[in-house]
C-alpha cells in the first residue's frame, strides 16, 4: 500500500518569533515599548508558541518593553535574551518574572569566537554557562534555553561540552545558531542530528538560522528533518545582514509540503501579511517588490503567457494561493502583456471591437505604451472605459 504524503503522521513544529529583538539588530528604526507591545499582541495572535520580547539588560527601553509584554501575553510564552551572566538574568527576571518566562542565554560556540571575541578558554565558556543556567533555575525560572552562538563553525568537542554543561545545570532547550549564515542544509542537518543524539527528547532542540546565502529556510527545514523541534523566525525575515528564517516562508512551505516532511504548524497564514504590514509601518521598512509571500508583486504578473493561463484557471501559474496568505492576485498591464488581457478588459466592459480597432488599442495600451512602469488592471480598465465612452 502506498502512503500518500498527506496521510503520513505529522509532528507539530514549535515556532519562536524573535522579530522584536532580531529586527532591531538590523539598521533602521528601533521600536518603542508600546510599539513592541502592539507587535507582540499581533505575533501572539498568529499562533506562535514563544514571543522573544527583548534584551532587558541592554537598555531601560528593552526592560520596560519586557515588563509590559510579560503582562500582555495571554497564551504564548515570553522569552528574553541574556548573556551568560548572573546580572543579565537578574534583570530579565525582574522585568519578566518567572511564571511564563523562558530565559534565553547566549553561549560562545566556536573557537574563533572564544579567541577573537571573548578572549576566554573553552573551560571558561562552559563554566559560565553552567553557572548562569543554575542561577536562573535557582531564581525559579522553569524554562532556560541556551543558544550556542556560531555553532555551525564550532568543533564537536566545544558544542557538546556546552550542551552537556547546559543540560546538567537544568536547561531544557538547546538552540543551534548558524550565526554567520555559512551553513548548507546538509551541514546544518548533520549538526542538528549530532546534537539530537547528545540531547534526546524531552529536551527541546531549536534552530536559529541566518540568510546570508539565502539558505535560512532550507537550513531550518533540514534541522527539523534531522530532529529539531523548534524554529526561531522573524516576520519578513528581518534581522542582521541578510536576516533570519522568515516566518511566512516557513508557514507557507509547511502548509503545502508539511505532509511530505511529516511536519505542521498552527500558524494563522491568513493573518501574517497584516501583521507584517503593521511591522513595516512601525519600523519604517520599505515595501519589498519580489519577496516570497510578502512582496508587493509576489502574486502579480505582467507576462502575457502567465495572464492567459491565470484567466483560464489560476492554478496554471499559482501554486501558492494568494488568499491563503491574506493577499490578492494582481494582473498588471505592461509591454509584455498579451492580447488575452485586453480582450478580458473589453469583455468586462461589454464592448465589442473590429479587428482593426482591437489592433490599434493593443498597440496603444500594451505594446506601444509609454514608460516602463506597469499598471494595475483596474487602472487601465477605467481609462479604457472613459476612452470608449467618449467615442
Automatic annotation (TrEMBL):
Keyword field contains Transcription: no
Gene3D superfamilies: 1.10.238.260, Aldolase class I
Sequence ranges assigned to domain Pyruvate carboxyltransferase in this UniProt record: 13-273
Keywords: Acyltransferase, Amino-acid biosynthesis, Branched-chain amino acid biosynthesis, Leucine biosynthesis, Manganese, Transferase
Source domain of life: Bacteria
Residue span of region Disordered: 1-33
Biased composition annotated in UniProt, kind: Basic and acidic residues: 1-10
Biochemical pathway: Amino-acid biosynthesis; L-leucine biosynthesis; L-leucine from 3-methyl-2-oxobutanoate: step 1/4
UniProt KW Transferase keyword: yes
E.C. no: 2.3.3.13
Family: Belongs to the alpha-IPM synthase/homocitrate synthase family. LeuA type 1 subfamily.
Name of the molecule in the record: 2-isopropylmalate synthase
Organism: Streptomyces fradiae ATCC 10745 = DSM 40063
Amino acid at each position: 500500500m502506498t502512503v500518500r504524503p498527506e496521510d503520513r503522521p505529522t509532528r507539530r513544529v514549535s515556532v519562536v518569533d524573535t522579530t522584536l529583538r532580531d529586527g532591531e539588530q538590523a539598521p533602521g528604526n528601533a521600536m518603542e515599548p508600546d510599539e513592541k507591545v502592539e507587535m507582540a499582541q499581533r505575533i501572539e495572535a498568529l499562533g506562535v508558541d514563544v514571543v522573544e520580547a527583548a534584551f532587558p539588560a541592554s537598555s531601560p527601553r528593552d526592560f520596560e518593553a519586557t515588563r509590559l509584554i510579560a503582562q500582555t501575553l495571554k497564551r504564548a510564552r515570553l522569552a528574553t535574551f541574556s548573556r551568560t551572566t548572573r546580572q543579565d538574568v537578574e534583570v530579565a527576571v525582574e522585568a519578566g518574572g518567572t511564571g511564563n518566562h523562558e530565559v534565553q542565554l547566549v553561549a560562545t560556540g566556536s573557537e574563533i569566537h572564544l579567541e577573537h571575541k571573548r578572549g576566554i578558554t573553552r573551560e571558561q565558556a562552559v563554566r559560565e554557562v553552567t553557572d548562569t543556567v543554575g542561577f536562573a533555575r535557582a531564581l525559579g525560572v522553569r524554562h532556560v534555553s541556551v543558544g550556542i552562538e556560531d555553532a555551525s563553525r564550532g568543533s564537536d568537542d566545544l558544542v557538546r561540552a556546552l550542551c552537556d554543561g547546559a543540560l546538567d545545570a537544568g536547561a531544557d532547550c538547546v538552540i543551534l545558531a548558524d550565526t554567520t549564515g555559512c551553513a548548507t542544509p546538509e551541514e546544518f542537518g548533520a549538526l542538528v542530528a549530532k546534537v539530537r543524539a547528545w540531547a534526546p527528547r524531552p529536551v527541546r532542540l531549536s534552530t536559529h538560522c541566518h540568510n546570508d546565502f539565502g539558505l535560512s529556510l532550507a537550513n531550518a527545514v533540514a534541522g527539523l528533518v534531522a530532529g529539531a523541534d523548534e524554529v526561531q523566525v522573524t516576520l519578513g525575515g528581518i534581522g542582521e545582514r541578510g536576516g533570519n528564517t522568515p516566518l511566512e516562508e516557513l508557514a507557507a512551505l509547511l502548509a503545502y509540503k508539511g505532509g511530505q516532511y511529516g511536519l505542521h504548524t498552527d500558524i494563522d497564514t491568513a493573518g501574517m501579511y497584516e501583521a507584517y504590514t503593521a511591522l513595516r509601518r512601525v519600523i519604517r521598512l520599505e515595501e519589498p517588490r519580489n519577496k516570497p509571500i510578502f512582496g508587493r508583486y509576489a502574486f502579480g504578473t505582467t507576462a502575457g503567457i502567465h495572464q492567459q493561463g491565470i484567466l483560464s484557471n489560476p492554478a496554471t501559474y499559482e501554486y501558492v494561493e494568494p488568499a491563503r496568505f491574506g493577499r490578492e492576485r494582481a494582473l498588471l498591464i505592461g509591454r509584455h502583456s498579451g492580447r488575452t488581457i485586453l480582450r478580458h478588459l473589453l469583455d468586462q466592459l461589454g464592448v465589442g471591437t473590429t479587428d482593426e480597432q482591437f489592433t490599434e488599442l493593443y498597440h496603444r495600451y500594451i505594446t506601444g505604451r509609454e514608460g516602463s512602469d506597469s499598471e494595475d488592471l483596474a487602472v487601465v480598465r477605467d481609462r479604457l472605459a472613459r476612452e470608449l465612452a467618449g467615442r
